[in-house]
Design a protein that fits this description.
By secondary structure, the protein is α+β, with helices and mostly antiparallel strands. The protein contains 5 helices and 15 strands. The strands form 2 sheets. Strands 2, 3, 4, 5, 6, 7, 9, 10, 11, 12, 13, 14 and 15 form a 13-stranded mixed sheet that branches. A hairpin with a 4-residue loop joins strand 4 (about 65-70) and strand 5. The longest helix is centred in the first third of the chain and has 11 residues, at about 1-10. The radius of gyration is 17 Å and the shape is globular.
Length: about 270
């Protein structure tokens, strides 16, 4: 039954002109809500909040399950059946369980990130999706304003690329086409964090349909470096399944959404 549903979903939204972000609200009305993501962050307008604490993760590498080309993004799934890999502190009220890692990127390295900081768009963005374990399950958490926390790591092309990205890039040939999945054991995603843990935070939504408004965003101030070869490898994925012609999986990022009356806060350092 679940297979059927995901096929139907894949027909209703994507990133092309016909089914792209401008039309998501037709099937998913909340995509036109007041608390949508991503947003533009202007550091001069950010409220420096002395009450904001550092955040901490305790990730169990054994929780990593598989890596998948969904046809929309690259996704790594983690076991979230108990408090095995968790995020806490920062702006969060409790303990959040790691569920998945997602990567968004562009067709060229001057675009691809979803959040834009001080008018700069980066080559890509990594999302670590966690849910509030005080709720009974993930589906329940999606209905609550404090249900989900996403750490966003911006990727920029630069010197000394982060060697930790290699582990993900090495698996790409195994998941070339949509729906392909490979085992991805023993991975601790905290190796991807930038050295500086300071962050911006605001209340927003998922950046993919249904775009539920249940997300506390923790956007890392410091990007991580990747190289052009790594970006080319991501762009070599296909958004079509193996039996269809190759169609590059790229530009899977949502354009900026209005901030409306929301406040973006940051740590004082």
């Amino acid at each position: 039954m679940m297979r059927k549903q995901s096929t139907a979903e894949s027909l209703t939204w994507g990133y092309s002109k016909e089914n792209g972000p401008d039309n998501w609200h037709v099937s998913y009305p909340i995509a036109k809500g007041n608390n949508q993501s991503p947003v533009a962050i202007l550091s001069k307008d950010v409220f420096k909040d002395p009450a904001l604490l550092p955040w901490f993760t305790g990730y169990d590498p054994g929780a990593a399950k598989n890596i998948r080309n969904t046809g929309k993004i690259l996704r790594i799934a983690f076991d979230d059946t108990f408090d095995r890999s968790v995020l806490r502190g920062g702006p969060l009220p409790g303990i959040y369980r790691l569920r998945q890692l997602q990567i968004h990127w562009g067709s060229t390295s001057d675009k691809g990130s979803e959040h834009v900081v001080d008018a700069k768009r980066h080559a890509g963005e990594i999302h670590l999706v966690h849910w509030n374990s005080s709720y009974s399950n993930y589906a329940d958490a999606l209905r609550k304003t404090d249900g989900v926390a996403i750490i966003a790591i911006l990727m920029q092309v630069g010197k000394n690329p982060k060697p930790e990205m290699k582990r993900i890039i090495e698996e790409i040939d195994a998941i070339k086409t949509k729906g392909k999945e490979a085992p991805f054991p023993n991975f601790d995603p905290s190796i991807l964090f930038p050295q500086n843990r300071s962050y911006y935070t605001y209340q927003g939504s998922f950046t993919m349909p249904p775009c539920e408004e249940c997300v506390t965003w923790i956007v890392m101030k410091e990007p991580i470096n990747v190289d052009e070869q790594q970006m080319l490898k991501l762009r070599s994925l296909s958004s079509n399944s193996a039996e269809d012609p190759h169609c590059p999986l790229q530009d899977n990022w949502r354009p900026l959404q209005p901030l409306n009356n929301r406040m973006i806060r940051s740590t004082c350092q």
